[in-house]
């Protein structure tokens, strides 16, 4: 049983429904130091030492089957290619919501924590925000961590899938809701932080999303923060040229996402969209996240090992979701390209990285 509210707000603690489509769910964080734009976009030095046993042993147990407590059967899920998909607003989001996908999302959360040195957000808020909205909350792991760390704050998480756990902190609520529907939060319930992470490939109209965030933020003190990994691999030593299947795959995924009407590579445009919508103090930070333990730097080596496993887990769902469903490849064709791409993701001779975008801005008075 999920804590997500379906068909009406929670009986015990009835907050008003957040949008028209609503189907219904302090360790003080120090203000983040104001980093310069792109300050992490530095060259990653390659570790030329022979891979050690610890490198051979993945930092992540790829056989883990944890997070079974998150499953829910409240809604009519859909099944294809052996994966489970959301039923509410069927087809709006092409990736699965099953246990395997939830494990991937929770691993991605861990990578974000490592990148932000344990912080949950990058925006320079002077105090923990009192009301927070986490759009497309997934397993709710970010919202739950935030609620645990900030018992004086209220946090609302929304998603198309009711995959949030039953046991949540009392200051966290989850709702089944479409972020692209009209929001109807009352004016007295404006947010001090809207957190949007990993929604590339999920949103058709980003300008409208940014405008809705702006409208529902507290003037003067409300911040919007995007945290977006970009679905594109790079290398600084040219080794990406050897990842032929991966390069073909990412081009296919991106063209499928364009055809589907929900672009994947949105990070670079978010800052400009926010400025156009009226946000001030907008800052954009790009972090190169290695795929594998190839960097010399110990912290980036650890992050790279997690990212390699995270990416290996993500190839199949993106293949079925975009190349299969949108471009019409057969299950067999999807399996073949998935296997080739996963091999390249695990190829230790490649020094690949992807870019993670951290973009935030404040609503003026
Ligand atoms: C890649 S996951 C990211 C989850 C979470 N933000 C995180 O970082 O762990 C994207 C999530 O967005 C949800 N989603 C996609 N489109 C949505 C929409 N239109 N409204 C609400 N949620 C949506 C999906 O169901 C999925 O849980």
From TrEMBL:
It comes from the Eukaryota. PANTHER family: ABC TRANSMEMBRANE TYPE-1 DOMAIN-CONTAINING PROTEIN-RELATED (PTHR43591:SF10), METHYLTRANSFERASE (PTHR43591). GO terms for biological process: methylation. Residues 47-67 have a biased composition (Low complexity). Keywords: Methyltransferase, Transferase. CDD domains: AdoMet_MTases. Residues 1-67 are annotated as: Disordered. GO terms for molecular function: methyltransferase activity. This is S-adenosyl-L-methionine-dependent methyltransferase.
